[in-house]
Amino acid sequence: MVDTIKVSAKSRSTAVAGAIAGVIREHKRADVQAIGAGAVNQTVKAIAIARGYLERDGLDIVCMPAFVEVDVGGEERTAIKFAVEVSRTFTPILPPVPEPPPAPPE
Amino acid sequence: MVDTIKVSAKSRSTAVAGAIAGVIREHKRADVQAIGAGAVNQTVKAIAIARGYLERDGLDIVCMPAFVEVDVGGEERTAIKFAVEVSRTFTPILPPVPEPPPAPPE
Fold it and tell me: Across all residues in chain B, what is the average pLDDT?
């Protein structure tokens, strides 16, 4: 089973996109979890960015959001879990480009 | 071409879900547009809810978010456009639920 990628409102969308792309390349699917509007927004942006990264691998992705109840420090919270999956493979037109290195800590 | 469903942070997610389900039943795809974290959050919740509505029609959906530039009152804004599509059809296990009858006159 693949670990769930947990996103907060403060997560950088490009960093999350890189994580999603990495998991998708290896497992062909990824689960991403967000609690709250800010985190959901960062996740959606990350999925849009990851699609661009994976295009160069000949992978197209789709996602399906669902409500899940999760335990956060003993309290039950409603999260959104995005199941991200490869929808099709194709021959990439563009050569692969290296992804940007992780940003230094702020 | 199908009209784009535009969602704001104040949109009710169940109302948006109903609109998405209606367009999907007719056209097998829907475009949903949101600007800002609140609107993106309402859209994601609506897609999760619409999936439940469409389950009774034997339709499963997926979505793919993308960045788009849109003109809002003469200003260019970055929106997220969600392309929602039918991913598979199946025989529903649950019978369709009738819509509630019209309320009696008061």
Answer: 92
